[in-house]
Amino acid sequence: MKPAWDKLGDEYADSSSVLIGDVDCTNVANIEMCGKLEIESYPTIKYWMDGNVKDYKSGRDYATMKEFVEVVLQKPCDVITLENCNDKETGYVKKMKSKSAAEREAQLVRLFGMKDNDMKGELKTWLVQRTFLLTAMKEKKDEL
């Protein structure tokens, strides 16, 4: 799991909303903290959300952990203000704002139809991002 964890950490190294880190609970200096977090076996993955510590209970491979970060932890792109949006998301939101609600819905249906297709990781990630953006636009249609 360590290579996948390190890869995930490298990917989010510059993130303003996600921190991927690790603590060696076999190190005497960390025993008190590890005890407070109730870490009893290794590796144990914890995450913080809204000030609460939670146990991560999903897969330990890179793809599963990355999806968890994207879906659960990462602050989403705000389709109204474009806050937390990268350049690609910003361009997509601007493009889709110029479309009608029916056109955006058709695009969302098309993307959902593709989600189980075999594709490279980057493409799968971008597909998931677009479905989140379109879903957010649908939910906030009165504010667009």
From TrEMBL:
**Pfam families linked:** Thioredoxin
GO MF term (any one): protein disulfide isomerase activity
Q: Which Gene Ontology cellular component terms are annotated?
A: endoplasmic reticulum
The Gene Ontology biological process terms listed for this entry are: protein folding
Domain Thioredoxin per the UniProt entry, residue ranges: 1-69
Q: Does the keyword Signal apply?
A: yes
Query: Which InterPro entries does the annotation name?
Result: PDI (IPR051063), Thioredoxin-like_sf (IPR036249), Thioredoxin_domain (IPR013766)
UniProt entry keywords in alphabetical sequence: Signal
Family assignment?
A: Belongs to the protein disulfide isomerase family.
> What is the name listed in the Swiss-Prot or TrEMBL entry for this protein?
Thioredoxin domain-containing protein
Task: Provide the taxonomic classification.
Answer: Eukaryota, Sar, Stramenopiles, Ochrophyta, Bacillariophyta
